[in-house]
Each structure stands twice: as structure tokens, then as C-alpha cells.
Design a protein that fits this description.
The chain is α/β, with parallel strands linked by helices. It folds into 2 domains: 207 residues, Spore Coat Polysaccharide Biosynthesis Protein SpsA, Chain A (Alpha-Beta Complex), CATH 3.90.550; 90 residues, no CATH class. It is 48% helix and 17% strand. It contains 13 helices and 9 strands. Strands 1, 2, 3, 4, 5, 6, 7, 8 and 9 form a 9-stranded mixed beta sheet that branches. Strand 2, helix 3 and strand 3 form a beta-alpha-beta unit. It is globular, with a radius of gyration of 21 Å.
């Protein structure tokens, strides 16, 4: 896409008078979740592009039967959500040359009634906002502690934000200006895009409105572990790209994962080898950290202790993900998807 490096300005008169919008959905073997996703946008009567990343469950045919324009990614190149969204945006732009707003949505999410109209109205009224998102909720938080953790994770502050997630409505002109997502990022592609948008003077906003229902379908420890490996990988990639001042993108999270997930256990193990098992008492800092985090989140009505425990435990897979990123760059290997379902 051709980049426009000028500072953001008010939309052209034609865009302000009659803004056109569309939807880009992405997915891979989402099954019934994809059906719910696409049916949730049909009432809005907007053009919908579905981008499929090598599904084997008939997702592409299902999307076509529900009226979506289907794009199947070339299997000779590595799949990433970033690449899928970029391909979807290109197809949507071809279908709607005067496209003003695009709603990105993951195939495991269902758009809430009224969200598209609310997001579009907000972007029309706020010309300096590039992306707007709302409240994403987990569909079945009661089915597992891991689903509950996702639901708590989605509950972020309202107002101006530093980043959005995979579900968001974006201003097409802003998206084109920064040339979209980075195709090669397998994780953390939305916050990375928002770093570049904010660098151009755009704002990111979170509304106090229901946006999507997400179906993590995460019921096993292994899924939770893999999802946190992906988070650690994203931290490492974010630091590599934007870790320098003034942005310092994800530097704090990156350092925390290295300290709690690798450095501290290694130091304790070394100390135990030198002075004996008494050094293992230093590991008591982990339950103390759980207590500290639980105390800090005492305003949370549910899942406070589970959240605190898994925030601390998550440092280990995060450190593994960061090591995975470092090894990948050392070997100059291409990134591959890190999937948890």
C-alpha cells in the first residue's frame, strides 16, 4: 500500500458526507464460531470479506454461503493474522473504493448488536481517532479458569488507549497511511500497528460499549501455556521493533518475564548448588508475589486469586516465548504461527 506520511487531518468532504464501511473477518478452522461471527454482521448490510488461513473444516465454503467474499491465503507463505487482515483489507478496498471505515473481527468472535453503528458514529465525530474498540467479553467464562482469565483480561479502561485488539473499527485512511499490519508478525500485531498510528498523531479509543463475544474454547492447561508462550513471543518482537525511547513498547513486560520466568529461578538454583537447599527458601518470593497481586486487584469481584496466581505462573511460558523469538532471529528463521486451539 502506498504510504501517506502527512499528519492526520479531517476526513475529505465526501467521506464526511457519506462514509462507507465494511467488515474483514479472519479465521482458521473456527467451525460454528465462524457462523455466529458472520451472522452477527449480516444485519448491518455491509460488504464482508472473510480471509481463510488454510482451514480444513469447510470454513471457506461456509463463509461463501453466508454472503461473504472469500479470500484463501496462499499456503506457500507462512500464515499470520496480520497477513490475513492485510489481504482482507486489500480485497475490501477493491470492492469499496471509497471505503472510509473497516471493522476487523476474528472468526471466533460475535459482534454485539449496535456496535457497528456506535463505532462508526464515533469515528465520524472524532476525526483524530484512527481506531475504536469496545468491551470484548468471553462467551463461556464459567467453563474453565482459563476462559475466566480471558474475560478479566479483556476488561480494560475506557477512554484514550495505547492499543486495541484484533476486534476494532479503523479509519481506512489511517490504516493506509501506516501501510497496515506487519505481515511477518505472528503475535502482537495490533499493538504494534497502534504504535505506528500514534507516532503519526492518531489516537486510539475504547468506548464503554459492548463490542464482541469471544469464544476462547480454552479448557486445558496446555492451551493456557501455549497462549502465554505467544504473549512472550509478542513482547520480544515488540521490544525488538519499538523498545527504544520514547515508546519503549513492552519493555516492562519483557523484563518482567525474563526476571520471574528465567533469571530468578537460575540464580536460586545456582545458590542452592553452592550453599545448599536452604537457598530454595528464596522461591517463597513467588507466593508472596501472588499475594501482592491479589491485594492490588481486590476491587475485582471474581477470579482475583486465580488471576494473581496465573499472572505469576505465566512468566515461565512468557520467558520461553521470548527465548523462542531470540532463537528464531539468531537462526534467521521465519516465524510460524503459535496456536493454542
Amino acid at each position: 500500500m502506498e504510504a501517506d506520511l502527512s499528519a492526520p487531518a479531517s476526513p475529505p468532504q465526501g467521506e464526511a458526507r457519506s462514509p462507507l464501511a465494511g467488515v474483514v473477518a479472519i479465521g482458521r478452522n473456527e467451525g460454528e464460531r465462524l457462523r455466529r461471527c458472520l451472522e452477527s454482521v449480516r444485519a448491518a448490510a455491509l460488504p464482508v470479506v472473510y480471509v481463510d488461513s488454510g482451514s480444513s473444516d469447510g470454513s471457506a465454503a461456509l463463509a461463501g454461503s453466508l454472503g461473504a467474499t472469500v479470500v484463501a491465503l496462499d499456503t506457500r507463505r507462512p500464515f499470520t493474522a496480520a497477513r490475513a487482515r492485510n489481504e482482507g483489507m486489500r480485497r475490501l478496498q477493491a470492492l469499496v473504493p471509497e471505503l472510509a471505515f473497516v471493522q476487523f473481527v476474528d472468526g471466533d468472535c460475535e459482534l454485539a448488536p449496535g456496535w457497528l453503528a456506535s463505532a462508526r458514529a464515533f469515528l465520524e465525530a472524532e476525526p483524530q481517532v484512527a481506531a475504536v474498540c469496545g468491551r470484548r467479553r468471553e462467551r463461556f467464562p464459567e467453563r474453565s479458569v482459563y476462559n475466566l482469565l480471558c474475560d478479566l483480561e479483556w476488561n480494560t479502561p475506557i477512554g484514550e488507549a495505547r492499543a486495541c485488539g484484533g476486534d476494532a473499527m479503523m479509519r481506512a485512511s489511517a490504516f493506509r497511511q501506516v501501510e497496515g499490519f506487519r505481515d511477518d508478525l505472528v503475535a502482537g500485531e495490533e499493538p504494534e500497528l497502534c504504535v505506528r498510528l500514534r507516532a503519526q498523531g492518531w489516537k486510539i479509543w475504547r468506548l464503554d460499549a459492548e463490542m464482541t463475544l469471544h469464544d476462547a474454547a480454552m479448557t486445558r492447561f496446555g492451551q493456557w501455556w501455549q497462549r502465554n508462550v505467544r504473549a512472550g513471543f509478542a513482547y520480544a518482537e515488540g521490544v525488538r521493533l519499538h523498545g527504544a525511547p520514547p515508546e519503549r513498547h513492552w519493555v516492562r513486560e519483557w523484563r518482567s518475564a525474563w526476571f520471574w520466568g528465567l533469571a530468578l529461578p537460575l540464580v536460586v538454583a545456582l545458590a542452592a548448588a553452592i550453599v545448599g537447599p536452604v537457598a530454595l527458601w528464596a522461591l517463597a518470593v513467588y507466593p508472596l508475589q501472588v499475594l501482592r497481586l491479589a491485594y492490588r486487584s481486590r476491587g475485582i469481584d471474581r477470579g482475583r486469586w486465580a488471576r494473581a496466581f496465573f499472572l505469576v505462573a505465566g512468566k515461565f511460558p512468557e520467558a520461553f516465548g521470548q527465548a523462542k523469538s531470540a532463537l528464531m532471529h539468531l537462526r534467521r528463521q521465519p516465524a510460524v504461527l503459535i496456536e493454542y486451539k
